[in-house]
Write a structure and sequence with these properties.
Two copies of one chain form a homodimer.
Chain A: H1 3-35, H2 42-60, H3 63-73, H4 83-101, H5 104-127, H6 130-155, H7 160-168, H8 174-197, H9 213-226, E1 240-242, E2 248-251, E3 254-259, H10 266-284, H11 301-315, H12 319-333, H13 342-348, H14 366-381, H15 390-402, H16 418-421, H17 428-447, H18 451-456, H19 461-470, H20 480-488, H21 495-509
Parallel strand pairs in A: 1-3
Antiparallel strand pairs in A: 2-3
Chain lengths: 511, 511
């Protein structure tokens, strides 16, 4: 590499570093808004987010980035760049092209509208009135569609919705997702039917013990630490806050999760903590030397979900994990939970039963919740349906697919924060994550055949390290299709995930 | 006013509005650092603060501001601007001149060094080792001096330290402070001696009851609301978090305070909450129409302290307030505090006794703590003493002035966050605040002679409204000397404050 190319590359990376730092600052303000902010501050907060978004847009679309990029891309020695450097250049180019095609006013308007929509969504959900939420959601969807239409041309995707998906799952299309999801749905329904017909059914009354909130907070910390997400040590880089809808937010040394605590449903916080801890482990275990570089992020939302799903379900709902953790749980909770039987508890937390709420859904029916949302988003962006029709369509889908009667929009179309927050094209990631997690499990099984015995002894270290080496430390060096192939040798396929479900649930339900 | 002048003024105010919004975003990140941040994040956080400080500096020193300012200042119709508009222009000019003389690198370096110094200060304080803190403090003091020397020329102050003071108390000088503080010290010592010699002494054992932290948290909320700082209502603009050193942070609709809870010293959180609530009331009751304008802030740190001191001491340590609030306190605390006697309690919370810790000091000796710090800062900036000598000088002053033997630097020179956080020239504000509070009290007494009876009935509204009208709603329309004269008709004078102390303590101690 000549001195000239290297110094241009360094200049480019310095500029990008500033953007990364700004984004991490925006994340703090976003997180504060969700976890700590007094309600009256919403107007001021939306101005703050809009301004930072405007500064971000200005920095991201600085013509000097184009100049530096061009100088690198057309340099005679371009091939002397290593894989990581080339990937950084590719990712900066991709983002630059996407960002420069979006008018700054549109970006600012979307940021403002997101803040307003989230605020109204909270109030509308509390009031169970979709009509309160509708006008702001309509405005937001229109703005997001406008952006997606512009980006469709830049990203050269088939549809605007594909451009939205590409943000979260690069190189993935709604066509391919439709295909994979159809296969997934058939498999899930097959397992569901077998569970329903099985003679051995779980007794979920064991989950109904009242557990005081401060005890649940202690359980949350112990759980996080059992899966190596450190929230209490002297040099911890994490913490657990409380929001209705749990999320993970942060970057490298400052990665925080949230959960909710319900006194009469302690399992709800248990699994949301495990889920978010899986996300947090991904961010915390990225390569330190890639900090502030585009390669220093997760590969995709789907891969992120593969990590949260692995920790929540494959690890966190396994017999082995609870053989280790149940005595700990009893130690923290005291007499309240002292009668919990391991086998009964593990069956109860793996109950398969169609439900209304996605985040409370079981591992088997979960995918169906996602498929409903995916279909709606796809049709909404294709102007086949309107925002006004959402509650009706939602309720019909839940009736048709899961046999559930939705009583009000808070337990229906308004249950998730995603659409208010402007996350369109994100939902498919959850089910793609499940699919990837099955493929990763099969690969880990080969490298670490004793993982289940280790887990039973409370040794999560080797499992975490396998994930870190194969997933976390790969950062954003590959697009999802390339990464899954690199790790497992195969394209995306639902078989390992369906096999995992079949094995697990046949054992639990005895079919 | 011609159309042209008005449109230039509007352009200027639009630019300033962006800076104000950015500053309020920086405050959120600062607050998160103090209250919520996991320890590992400090490196990333210092980069975030440095970047935002850099962006702030760039916006603040944008040559377009100079162009707009000049165009307004030299406009033929300048006199058609109203008082508020002229004050905005004056404040923008003042800030612009100060900021443009400071090199951007110095500003960034100071921001970074502050973050590092605060972090080390926390660790050094925990370890009781000033030597850990010393090198980072030395670097920070050098940087701050460098800035003060530059600003001395811009502000045309006599000394660099006067330039530092001017940030917090415009138009105030160390010469004048020395004069007023000498008078204050004589008065304080006189009251102190009388208290010490008096036959009626307080029984502070009534404050030693153990009060569980969650009970103290409830008391804190009730106290805040008793003085009209709303932290729980549906549209509240406040909240109470926890830090070792309490502070108030925020802007208009998002003003939050912090406190600390010690199980065996519940009065400590009681008075820190009242103190910070006084600051919060100031910010919350600024004129809404002045939001995002330079006039839409408090007048000075000293005036801010006058508000916190009024709520903490004049209101919060009065017999009348506790006649109302003690039954409430008992209701929250239950059996623990049921035997508290009103008179004994009020005397106990007004015990006059020299102590080592400023924030735990009584109303009478408090000023002496400030005078020690003021003298040290003044001499440090005049190169009469060095950072290395601070512990020795500190300990000597505490021995000479208060008769206290300092055992280690955590209870000595490292007790406050100010010097680590870069607040030089701030300390005098605390005692100036006391002085102003005495003058304000005398003025309020004339307008609202029944304030004590109202307070006894739990009616704080009229007192708060008097303060809002006379202080809060004046915003930053006047410099402190002009404001105190406008409200009280007099220049700064210690007499009303000393009279207040004399009357109050002669009654309590019976001298």
């Amino acid at each position: 590499m000549t001195e000239n190319l290297l110094s241009t590359y360094k200049k480019l990376m310095e500029k990008v570093k500033e953007i990364v730092i700004l984004n991490s600052a925006q994340a703090i303000i976003q997180r504060d808004m969700e976890t700590m902010m007094p309600p009256k501050a919403i107007g001021l907060r939306s101005q703050q987010l809009a301004l930072l978004s405007q500064i971000d847009h200005k920095m991201t679309t600085d013509p000097q980035i184009e100049t530096l990029l061009k100088s690198i891309e057309h340099h005679a020695d371009y091939d002397s760049l290593d894989t990581v450097q080339k990937r950084n250049v590719y990712l900066i180019r991709k983002n630059y092209d996407e960002q420069t095609k979006l008018p700054e006013e549109l970006v600012v308007e979307i940021a403002k509208q997101r803040a307003i929509a989230v605020d109204i969504w909270k109030k509308a959900k509390a009031a169970k009135k979709f009509l309160m939420f509708k006008p702001e959601l309509e405005k937001l969807v229109e703005l997001q569609k406008k952006a997606a239409e512009i980006l469709m041309k830049v990203k050269k995707t088939k549809t605007p919705y594909d451009a939205a998906i590409d943000f979260f799952e690069p190189k993935m299309t709604s066509e391919e997702i439709t295909r994979v999801f159809n296969e997934l749905r058939a498999g899930l329904v097959s397992v569901l039917r077998k569970c329903e017909a099985a003679p051995r059914q779980p007794d979920v009354s064991v989950l109904k013990h009242k557990v005081p909130l401060d005890v649940q907070r202690k359980i949350a910390i112990a759980l996080a630490e059992a899966v190596e997400y450190d929230v209490t040590s002297k040099n911890s880089g994490g913490r657990i806050d409380e929001t209705e809808h749990p999320f993970t937010n942060g970057y490298y040394d400052d990665v925080r999760i949230t959960t909710h605590y319900y006194e009469d449903l302690f399992a709800s916080s248990v699994f949301s903590v495990l889920h978010e801890a899986g996300h947090a482990l991904y961010e915390q275990n990225l390569k330190p030397e890639w900090m502030y570089q585009p390669v220093g992020t997760g590969c995709s939302s789907g891969f992120h979900e593969s990590q949260s799903r692995t920790v929540e379900n494959i690890i966190g709902r396994s017999h082995e994990f609870w053989a280790y953790f149940l005595p700990k749980l009893k130690g923290i909770a005291g007499s309240t939970l002292s009668n919990l039987n391991l086998d009964k508890f593990v069956h109860a937390i793996n109950q398969v039963k169609p439900s209304k709420i996605r985040v409370e859904a079981d591992e088997v029916t979960y995918g169906v919740h996602i498929i409903i949302r995916f279909n709606i988003e796809r049709d909404l962006f294709a102007d086949k349906i309107t925002v006004k029709e959402l509650p009706e369509i939602w309720n019909q889908c839940y009736k048709d697919y899961l046999g559930m009667k939705i009583e009000n929009d808070s337990e229906g179309v308004m249950q998730d924060t995603h659409w208010a927050s402007g996350y369109y094209g994100y939902f498919p990631s959850y089910a793609l994550g499940n699919i990837y997690s099955g493929q990763l499990l099969a690969a880990m099984q080969k490298d670490l055949p004793s993982w289940r015995t280790q887990l039973e002894k409370g040794n999560f270290k080797n499992i975490r390290q396998w994930m870190s080496k194969n997933v976390h430390q790969q950062g954003n060096l590959y697009d999802p299709p390339a990464l899954i192939k690199k790790i497992t040798g195969k394209e995306i396929t639902v078989k390992p995930y369906l096999d995992y479900l079949e094995t697990k649930y046949s054992k639990l339900y005895g079919f």
